[in-house]
Amino acid sequence: MSRVGKNPINLPDGVEVKLQGSLITVKGPKGELKWNSPAGMKISMQDKSVVVERPSDSKQFRSLHGTTRSIIANMVAGTSAGYRRALEISGVGYRAQVQGRKISFTLGYSHPVEYQLPEGISAEVDKKQTLLTLQGIDKQLIGQVAANIRSLRSPNIYKGKGIRYAGEIIKLKAGKSGK
């Protein structure tokens, strides 16, 4: 039995879950998320919690059991509290500016790099323009947007310049002289 999948998902106040066949709708104070669950997974409401069960012990359903429960739990957490992801920009002259639904980066290229934010994601930049904070209710979308932004200028392994996740540690290599 899946250790993750067998745990019920407790619903906080203000969050409601609707089950319509394989479509799961989670509505909370921050917004609403919808997801089509895999065919065959049994999802039910018990009191103020959601329970995910698998129909059999086949390899396919064993692998989907914990994943299905985790996705629903992330939807509940996102609609009640939301998710944040911070990115640090390091390097001389490297900075970011938010202009409506666009983020304009100066990353050492000959031109500014612009990134269009998808619907449901908002961004803030600190006063130094070196700390970018992404916010939203969809955990998967926040992670994908953060990865896309990081790939605009990945951290350099020799000098450490570039965009990195907040708290990410880059192990710097020695240069040619082997300092």
Question: Secondary structure elements and their pairing?
Answer:
Elements: E1 9-10, E2 16-20, E3 23-27, E4 32-36, E5 42-46, E6 49-53, H1 59-80, E7 83-90, E8 95-99, E9 102-106, E10 113-116, E11 121-125, E12 131-136, H2 139-150, E13 162-165
Antiparallel strand pairs: 1-6, 2-3, 3-4, 5-6, 7-12, 7-13, 8-9, 9-10, 11-12
Written overview of the protein:
With 179 residues, the chain is α+β, with helices and mostly antiparallel strands. It has two helices and 13 strands. The model has no long low-confidence stretch (mean pLDDT 93). The strands form four sheets. A four-stranded antiparallel beta sheet has the order 11-12-7-13, with helices on one face. Strands 1-6-5 form a three-stranded antiparallel beta sheet.
The largest sheet has its strands arranged as: 11-12-7-13
Main beta sheet, described?
4 strands, antiparallel
Tell how many strands the DSSP assignment holds: 13
**Which sequence of SSEs, written as H and E, runs from N to C?**
EEEEEEHEEEEEEHE
Q: What is the number of helices?
A: 2
**Average pLDDT number:** 93
Strand content: 35-45%
Radius of gyration: 21 Å
Through-space gap between termini: 52 Å
* Shape type: elongated
Contiguous uncertain segments of 5+ residues: none
Structural class: alpha+beta
The helical percent reads: 10-25%
